[in-house]
Amino acid sequence: MQTKIITVKLNKYCYDIVIGSGLIAQAVSKIKHYLHQKSSHQKIRLAIVTDKNVAAFHLNTLQTKLAENEIYTVPIIVEAGEQSKSFPILQNVIDKILVARLERSDSVIALGVVLLVILQDLRQVLYVEVCI
After folding, report:
1. What is the mean pLDDT of residues 87-102?
2. Domains in the chain, ordered, with CATH?
């Protein structure tokens, strides 16, 4: 399986974008490994923050694969685009995490790179651990 990695360097952030086939399966393997290492709960819970465009193509597949590995998911879908990088959207994401009753031992991931800014902000204000 061939992948291409593009490193994006911004003022405050640096991250890799991985392009290729079979990436959801790879992501599930890495997520599963990480969550099983950190969780003492029998039920592992994970919030998935994504935008409408990415969700339409990949969210269902990711949730199905995670469910097969006994990982309970809470999807949080925001509008696509720059307008989603705002405090009201961050508040909405936090509200949904609270309604889902996620705890410190639970995790939050971004599906799609657009949401990294939201998750960087979450890392600073939330009681759940954010893994990117």
Report:
1. 88
2. 23-130 (3.40.50.1970)
